Amino acid sequence: MNKIVSKENFSENVVKLEVEAPLIAKSRKAGHFVIVRVGEKGERIPLTIAASDTQKGTITLVVQKIGVSSTKLCNLNVGDEITDVVGPLGKATHIENFGTVVCAGGGVGVAPMLPIVEALKKAGNRVITVLAARNKSLVILEDQMRKFSDEVIIMTDDGSSGKKGLVTNGIEEVINREKVDLCVTIGPAIMMKFVALLTKKYEIPTVASLNTIMVDGTGMCGACRVTVGGKTKFVCVDGPEFDAHQVDFDQMLMRLGAYKQEEQADMYKVSKQ
Amino acid sequence: MAEDRNVAWREDLRKGLSNKERTAIQRVKMNELEPAYRARVREEVNQGLTKEQALVEAKRCLDCPNPTCMTGCPVSINIPGFIKNIERGEILEAAKVLKETSALPAVCGRVCPQEKQCESQCFYKLKLKKDAVGIGYLERFAADYERESGMISVPEIKEKNGKKIAVVGSGPAGLSFAGDMAKMGYSVTVFEALHEIGGVLKYGIPEFRLPNKVVDVEIENLRKMGVTFIKDCIVGKTISIKDLEEDGFKGVFVASGAGLPRFMNISGENLIGVMSSNEYLTRVNLMDAANPESDTPINKGHNVAVIGGGNTAMDSVRTALRLGADRAMIVYRRSEEEMPARLEEVKHAKEEGVEFMTLHNPIEYIGDEKGRVVKMRLQKMQLGEPDASGRRSPIEIPGAIEEIDVDEVIVSIGVSPNPLIPSSVEGLQVSPKGTIVVNEGMQSSIPMLFAGGDIVRGGATVILAMGDGRAAAAAMDKYLK
Ligand SMILES: Cc1cc2nc3c(=O)[nH]c(=O)nc-3n(C[C@H](O)[C@H](O)[C@H](O)COP(=O)(O)OP(=O)(O)OC[C@H]3O[C@@H](n4cnc5c(N)ncnc54)[C@H](O)[C@@H]3O)c2cc1C
Ligand SMILES: Cc1cc2nc3c(=O)[nH]c(=O)nc-3n(C[C@H](O)[C@H](O)[C@H](O)COP(=O)(O)OP(=O)(O)OC[C@H]3O[C@@H](n4cnc5c(N)ncnc54)[C@H](O)[C@@H]3O)c2cc1C
Ligand code: SF4
Ligand code: SF4
Ligand code: FES
User: Fold this and answer.
1) Which residue of A has its CA nearest to B266?
2) Quick check: bond before B422 cis, omega within 30?
3) pLDDT tens per residue across span B10-61
4) Which of A41, A220, A255 sits opposite B260 (nearest CB)?
5) CB-based contact A221 B279, cutoff 8 Å
6) Which chain B residues are within 8 Å of A24, Cβ to Cβ?
7) Structural domains in chain B plus CATH codes
8) pLDDT tens per residue across span A79-91
9) From CA B109, how far away is CA B94, in angstroms rounded?
10) Taking the model in full, what pTM does it have?
């Protein structure tokens, strides 16, 4: 079960894995995610299903090395088995032809944004993708995004690739030049917060896909809770996508830091390998 | 039953010792680890009875002609029947008597609230106003003895009847159902959403109360009986009930439990350090987060407050102690008398140094600049008139508010039924509380779909879940014939 049938390195820190999971391949829709565990002492981490092949019975994951668990997963090779893969989880993305959609991704959000960009394009939208990173070497999945976008705008903090500036500068540039019907944003909470503030100003409906800390992914623990429109929501069952203008990003930002110290201390585990 | 009591050896036993001599024996004391030691380790607190102790305790039982104790047991275990087998030294026979009724005696002997069930109806308690016979201790003793003897009997399996049955969830309800159906010759597959089999027995109840190996042996037994377990499979997500039907499953038993945590919706509840007991216990028990080898993180609190007075609250607060808390507190809005937890757990918690702040209710959590909880505000309460549950209801004492320092808060105020199956099956009748509605045979509004355990009762007990599993198996067998 869960054998890796192919692996492709998109960049040093981003890997595409095709994994045997016939039941999930059959039942998943765009926007769904899986929970994956590597090793008997492994952590359960959520990953978006980037694609599936019902014929081959496989799903595709695009994984970025962030910490211990994502690195362990990226270090697996073709033929290896992933200890646990469970899903599909969460609510599927609402995909339709909205018109012009700006997809703004950065950091940990670029990988899970890929299948959404693809689905939006296939539904007939004009898709403009804005990718943000600190510098050129951290820009990931550019080629893959180009395949499904009408236009890709790269923004870097130092201008070493694309334009110099923040993701919000890239979005504003598009807003100033054409009518935008929807904005989709995935990335660090702080980035999504500023995207939401910007699009609120222009009254553009905005969807944020929240990547909170999770444990079970089935609504059982509440680790993933966020406040949306003043109400507590569980990202794993009520989300992961929400109206960005309603999300309390400051709270989400704090909660993401809950285990920061322990996670950093844990990094010795992969450096030891 | 009556014939059973009249067998020669039992009559001889009764004659062997007068009731006066029997009632003069003091109730046995459970062998326990020292509080100071056990409060820092994961080892099981109760060490069980020695054979000598068990033989003496078994003598106390009067083998009553009308064993009222049995009316207190939700599944009517043949209590004198198994105890008298212990008295005559036939421990494996005692275990067999237990297994006629209970699929998990080693578990129930440990976790049943005996003082409210079987032992509350014992002749000693009712008529003599003395300590009841240690029915739970003896049940555990017989089941452990059988397991440790390595001579667990794998039940006889009737000839396979070729009918496929699916079980959703691997807690006590699912496991006991699976065992009974396998015995009757059905091909049983258990689907479990998590990566471990056992439900709350694994991810909820901690090692120091119920060691995993006790549960694992039972699961291994079911495997030997031909039951198939499929982990990481969420019915309603990974596969649907319809898929199962199309796959040739003739009946489905839903035992998906009451896994959703409740919160109080008070200010500051989403601060870092405030979490549900489900999250806390899942990290520690299922993910082994306290083990440095585990990749799952856990924050070890110094001042830990656990909100609630049930078994889950006791398990959480004692876990916090074991993870090194300096101060571990129970915050409960009623008085100790109303606490739903097992008596023994409350006693153990106190011995281990847990502080009990009864008649206190949290009204707000306060965080620091990093969003970590640092203080909680508590409203002091007093007891008023009995409410719908028959317990005296807590009412606020106006103005009596106090603040205490905390760096971890575990909210343990109950769970709601898992909505996955109720919401994914069309036409399934569900109560306003979200539980699946069933008839006395545990059959739902969809004839091939049966349900039992916490998904039907809301949060209940292991023994009731297990009893439901067995009742459902009997009823489904009839339905499929
Ligand atoms: C619904 C959902 C879908 C996701 N899809 C994908 C995907 O398709 N591909 C992918 O690469 N990642 C995805 N993620 C994020 C992924 O789950 C995390 O990167 C992973 O859990 C990190 O685990 P780790 O042990 O490697 O890092 P950790 O050791 O847990 O974290 C290392 C550092 O990164 C920070 N961090 C961890 N997780 C996040 C996060 N989610 N957002 C921001 N900062 C974080 C931590 O604060 C910590 O400082 C998704 C997350 C969610 C909730
Ligand atoms: C911490 C704690 C301590 C407790 N202490 C005691 C005690 O001392 N004594 C006592 O009698 N009772 C106690 N209880 C209560 C008791 O554990 C429960 O009443 C009992 O476990 C219910 O059994 P169940 O089989 O209905 O469900 P559960 O044990 O909850 O098992 C349900 C299983 O179904 C799985 N599942 C859910 N949905 C799906 C799905 N869609 N597909 C596949 N699998 C699914 C879940 O992952 C879970 O493993 C305690 C509970 C907790 C949480
Ligand atoms: S199953 Fe529970 S209630 Fe019944 S006899 Fe055993 S310990 Fe008592
Ligand atoms: S009521 Fe008490 S003494 Fe009588 S049979 Fe039951 S356990 Fe024994
Ligand atoms: S991850 Fe546990 S409830 Fe969402």
Assistant:
1) A232
2) no
3) 999 999 999 999 999 999 999 999 999 999 888 999 999 999 999 999 999 9
4) A220
5) yes
6) 238
7) 2-149 (1.10.1060.10), 164-259+417-480 (3.50.50.60), 261-415 (3.50.50.60)
8) 999 999 999 999 9
9) 13
10) 0.93
